[in-house]
User: Fold these one by one.
Assistant:
Number 1:
Amino acid sequence: MKKRIGISIFPEQSSFEEDQKYLDKAWSLGYEVVFTSILHFVGSENEKEKAKKVLRVVKYAKELGFYTIVDVEYKSMDLIGISINDASKCNEYGIDCLRLDSPSLPAEIAFVTHNKAKVDIQLNMSNNDSLIDNVMDFKPIANRLSGCHNFYPLEFTGLPFDYFMECNKRYLKYRLNTSAFIGSHHGVMTSAVGQKELPTIEEIRYLPVSQQAKVLFYTDEIDTVLFGNAYATDEELKELASVDRDEVTFDLKCVEGVTDIEKQVLLFDHYRRGDITEYFIRATQSRVKFKNDDFPARKSKSFYNRGDVVIINNSDKKYKAEIHIILEDNFADKIGKYNYLGTISESEKRLIDFVVPWKQFRFNLV
């Protein structure tokens, strides 16, 4: 499935006109999915008016062409006149998908995927429980079923990365579509008023939005990445829209002295050899492409650490122009064959783990 990007909106906290502008901007940049919620204000003052505001904006988003998701549970479904047994009003509202936040019986969930309105159903992926297995026992229409992780407004409550990956497995084995969240560093509208940064994974909370999205997309386990809070700035919207969603891409700042030809090698399309070594990621096709070019030795380091990017210089005629990403700390260059090019930033070192055998990767020089 094509990987998509999306936004969240909270119309009860804004005006229709402001939401309209935000949706128009996002649509123009290639965003395709809109997430919103009703459940977080059920039982509050003016809940019916708030629900009307949400549904008006959802309708507009649908008219633009967005795929629309509304987070609900039983009480919020009652508020807008739908139920687990009758989702027909969703077509009138412009709702493509209901995200069922609170637990329902597996048989009910499977049954509702057969609804005549053809509304999709989304489940919470973040609990790592057997709900999805039990739902699948009751033969749902699988292409109307998907998973979406939670977002976590409160600092230190986001999922650990390894646990996140465990949660994904339960949905991936059924080939279901998956979604997860990143956080704007500016949007103050959320389901938890007063919080910012609404990521799924804790370790990405304070990263630039592009780097948050890379961690999610490059697992190759998340199909849709959405901002969890609103409004993301124009710059943040553009930043996420510009992320390569498929090829692992490192932002690399070259050290002083890197030559033009070395920069050309960095910009080559690389892949990790299949017969791997544990000491570095080895990309060898550049030595074929640039075999006739000159790579004089420069004063570099004697020891390298994880994330350092190097090129083999003229000291080794056979292997010159190979690019290596060092994987071990205190890795010694005993004969001075390396020219040091730069170091992958701490905030992108997680991405190194995604460069598995035969995986293509790129550098974006910043």
Note: The chain has a mean pLDDT of 97.
Number 2:
Amino acid sequence: MRKRVIGICICLAFALLLGIGAYQAKTIKTPEVTSDLYSQEEITDAINVVKQEMNMNWKGCDLQEIYYAGDETSKDCLDWATRNDADESLVLLSTFYVGNDCEDGSLEPDSMYENWMWILVRSKDGQWKCVDWGY
């Protein structure tokens, strides 16, 4: 009987851990926006750079949605490429939630930020680099 109780407890603990992992791996919305400048793969690469930036340096923030801002917006930010010795710029827009445990004191806790811009640059066919963000 005791072995059965221990077995059930282990199974419940395992199920709980799986549930927590599934919750943390929630899907981030990434609506596809067509572009004459960049392929969907290039846009996805830029989105992954921002996701990595948020995972590493934006503790307590929960990315909800991120997408390409469009060709016109990216063209308008081409000066960012020049300032960063790069050839191309790409702008993403995002929505994210700032939790009460956010480590960045400049963000309002327990609030949602929408249309937050991420400016990325790269040299021709190089890797995207996030150089600025904000409104």
Note: The chain is about 40% helix and 25% strand.
Number 3:
Amino acid sequence: MPSDLPPLRGLETVSAADLRRNFGVWQERAFSAPVVVARHGKPRLVLTSAEHYFTNGAGKEEPLDLVQNAIAAIPEHSSEGLLVLDRDLRVLAVNRVFEDMVGRHAARLVGQCWEDLFPEATTSLVGDQFRHVLRTGASVQFETPSMMADGRQYALSVFPHEHGVAALIMNRTVETEMRQQIEEYRSLAASFGVVPDAAYVRINLRAFIESASPQFTRLMGFDPKARPHLIFTDILRADARAEILERLDDVLSGGRPARFPTTMLTASGDAVDVKMALAPIWRGPAPEGAMAFFHLDAV
């Protein structure tokens, strides 16, 4: 046995076979004092209680190291970017998400002054908030456009720590675009609401009508309380369906908006001449559907 092991004399010993047969008994004894587990007559393990293990010093540093390592690994599993600065706004640490956000490795960031790394941020809202948190010790949350990538929007939570200031940074670009689309949709719906001879429908990628304006349901003779669930081309005159389906496929593939005259069929089979416009609905880099706008040729 290694010479640096503590002496085992005076400790109760149990064979591995007996331990398996009567584990509950030996577990109770180990609560009072360590029990040596022997195999083929040679000591192999020591069964002891957690309280005895930690209070007697054995393994004290190792569990602490494990806990510290586990805590240090948490930022690497976060979906938020982490930036830690000292009181002079020099970078102390970053996680991989932040590296991806700025396109630089930690080795090129740590030890550098924030204002030297990102000079465009010196007089920006971000730099002002870092200094505000350092001065007041109060945390702040805010959103700001990216200074490095046009079109991106970030949410920052900036808070003080013992050696300076830190920030959690989340990419809010998609959420911001969705909010803008919702507001634009509401504005569009409100505008159509005061134009009696105009209507619109929203079409999904399978060419089904997902939603429609009240003017559309009245024009087509549908139940205004029911959600229209039919293929878009079914509301068109038969001889126009192939051409308009081709136009719709092009729009759903990200093509340019199109405007053209056509004829729709109401629920009762009446023909209605309209001017139609098709436009894609974008979600990030790809369309998620289309809007069809109608204006009656004659009111």
Note: The chain has three domains: 12-58, 76-171, 176-296.
Number 4:
Amino acid sequence: MMKTTALIISFIIAGFTLSAQEIKCPDDVNVHLFDLDLSYSSYGSPTINLSGPYELDKTVTIVDNSCVDRKANINYKLEETNTGNVYTCTQTIHIELPTLDDVIWPEPSITLEFGEPDDLKPENIGGPEPAEFLDGNSTILTAYEDQVVESSPTGPYKIVRSWTALDWCTSKTSMFNQVLKINEITNTALGVTTVKDCNGNDVSVIDVIVSTDETGFAVDLSACDPSSGSLLDFMNCVAANNDISNNSSFKLSLRGNDNYLDGVSTLDMVISQRHILGISPLGSSCKLIAADVNNDGRVSALDLLIMRKLILNIITSIPNNTAWKFINENTLNPNISDLNDKDLDFKKSEFPLQSLDIIAIKTGDVNNSASGN
């Protein structure tokens, strides 16, 4: 008789009691670029489950894939003071890029009392909004061009300010015209008055004859005639010449043309970007100086942004920098942050100079294509 043996296999499941997570980040957030809190302080705080003392560190990392994706990673680092244990979590802020429909144009018509040229700048009278997210931090770039329309040479006039917004990702543009009506502020008109002489009598016309011997000097005129019509034939003289005085220090000042766009192209942007990414370092001190467009002593994405604005004719000059730099070759070194205006300063002890080699570097021209004209 066959016996059947039943094989019984039992599973023992061990129970685990899970403790609360030491640190838990707030939920991820989707936000439009124009609504982004640049301090990143309004997106919540992490939940911390520790009974002892601790230190909490917060850093923000921006991930910018140009037109494809942009996000901010808020990284929290929690460290227990007593044990040294470290716990981390990350909250991601997904940033929605703007379109041309998101641009808020300024008032279509403004009346201004014009005093100084700066009064007409967009930062003083208003431009496209939100200004803090346009141009520098956005894929939407804005520029404007002014056309003056006069009713008469001395009367009020108008400025037609033509705004253009460019979507860098789609290459689409949007146009907007703003009219600025300018009322000139004129000086107070002076009335006709009677001039008295030193004795209180009305003054007749007095002829003043001045001989300058082809030199220039200031003459103070008064209504009184203290010299009784005599000829003034002497003046204080100051001698001057073009000789360099002894016991002095000297500075050689050179200047090139002011064409900031000369030699700057998209190829320079590509070369600089490969340097920033570590793919192909520039290597040459002259190229590093040329690539440092914003003159802050390093090559960064901000330099690429300024080069792009030059190429698109959004700007025609570069703040805090000149179109050309002139460097004394003897002071040239790989550390561009050490370069300054004193490179062409000389002391008396350095004379006579047997030779002086000056290197002219065109700002933004990394591939050395500037014409110099």
Note: Residues 100-184 form one domain.
